Amino acid sequence: MSTIVNDSILPEELAEVVEYQQEKVRNDLIRDLIRLRKERRITQEELALRTGIARSNISRIEKGTYNITLDTLVKIAVGIGMTLDINLVDFE
Known about the structure:
Layout: E1 4-5, E2 8-9, H1 14-39, H2 44-51, H3 55-63, H4 70-79
Antiparallel strand pairs: 1-2
Helix pairs in contact: 2-4
């Protein structure tokens, strides 16, 4: 996928790596949000009421058609009874 030289990505590959990481993080996040919401038996409508986010936007987030902000993500995490923990990790 990418070439790592001296712990840094070569400039010509940066856009490719960024695009891949954005897609991976987005898909992982959506999968986790849906799973956690359903495990807690919270409907999209109930989550909307808890968070103040329109149900239609929650649906768009779960479909991957809405570019979620950090503030919105925090509201959703709290709405499903979670806290948000973001970790930056080295490339493997």
